[in-house]
């Protein structure tokens, strides 16, 4: 088995976390890989550390404004020029760790499943499965773990395997419209609509550090700080990007009421937080 594996790894200023990933990559039994390190403006020596450890490496450098979708798009643009359609592509985060046989198993299973293949993503502290195949109800804007392989119509990109021919079929990300959160869901939902099989399997497992991800909890903030984080690109709750996702990924007939749902949900969250802060101040 000699398939070339191109690993697209976006990073930004978390050298210690990235180094744990590199430890795992350097220990792989499958060595026919090429790491594309997409360093979006790091100032902590991340690229230098990786360059000293990994020989099969290309570094793409940004100014800190690519975010997740933009970083992956930079990698895709590079692959379109420098890789072949049969080469394997892996979209992956640097906050994951994996066993020495991870790449070999992923290559073997991708050949079996085809399409897009996601490892089961396990919380490194609890051992619980945090990410797997997703069933997205796009008429209601709800997401849950799929109860069967046939019901998977959406996947995260934390360790996502596919061939470059599949990447080309699906097309590009939308870095300006969905720079970070939800960009992976939109991309894989689009793939499913184009007939690309989506799969996940417990035979392929990675662990990840939940604490290294973006803003999900907004406790202990002033109201101004809360709003800044709530509407940040790093916020999984940002209603502007949820609105963009609705426009790109949901049935047209459902768009008006789903937009109302998004902004009503955000208004309730903002009101709830303001009342919590008022009660604390008045205590």
Structure, explained:
- With 283 residues, the chain is of the alpha/beta class.
- The chain has two domains: 208 residues, Spore Coat Polysaccharide Biosynthesis Protein SpsA, Chain A (Alpha-Beta Complex), CATH 3.90.550.10; 60 residues, no CATH class.
- It has nine helices and eleven strands.
- The strands form three sheets. The protein has a five-stranded mixed beta sheet, sandwiched between helices.
- Strand 2, helix 2 and strand 3 form a beta-alpha-beta unit.
- The longest helix is centred in the last third of the chain and has 28 residues.
- The radius of gyration is 19 Å and the shape is globular.
- The model has no long low-confidence stretch (mean pLDDT 93).
């Amino acid at each position: 088995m000699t398939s070339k594996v191109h690993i697209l790894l976006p990073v930004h200023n978390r050298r210690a976390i990235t180094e744990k990933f590199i430890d795992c990559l350097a220990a792989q039994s499958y060595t026919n890989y090429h790491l594309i390190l997409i360093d979006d403006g790091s100032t902590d020596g991340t690229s230098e550390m990786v360059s000293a450890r990994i020989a099969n490496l290309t570094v793409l450098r940004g100014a800190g404004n690519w975010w997740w979708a933009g970083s992956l798009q930079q990698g895709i643009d590079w692959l379109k020029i420098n890789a072949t359609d049969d080469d394997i592509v892996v979209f992956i985060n640097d906050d994951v760790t994996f066993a020495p046989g991870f790449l070999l198993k992923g290559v073997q299973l991708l050949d079996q499943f085809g399409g897009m293949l996601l490892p089961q993503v396990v919380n490194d502290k609890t051992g619980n499965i945090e990410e797997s195949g997703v069933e997205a109800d796009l008429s209601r804007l709800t997401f849950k773990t799929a109860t069967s392989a046939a019901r998977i119509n959406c996947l995260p990109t934390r360790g996502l395997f596919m061939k470059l021919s599949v990447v080309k079929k699906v097309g590009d990300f939308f870095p300006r419209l969905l720079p970070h959160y939800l960009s992976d869901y939109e991309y894989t939902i689009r793939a499913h609509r184009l007939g690309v099989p989506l799969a996940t399997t417990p035979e392929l497992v990675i662990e990840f550090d939940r604490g290294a991800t973006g803003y999900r909890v907004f406790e202990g903030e002033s109201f101004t700080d809360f709003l800044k984080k709530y509407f940040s690109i790093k916020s999984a709750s940002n209603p502007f990007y949820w609105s963009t996702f609705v426009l790109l990924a949901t049935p047209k007939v459902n768009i008006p009421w789903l937009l109302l749902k998004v902004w009503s949900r955000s208004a309730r969250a903002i009101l709830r937080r303001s009342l919590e802060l008022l009660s604390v101040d008045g205590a």
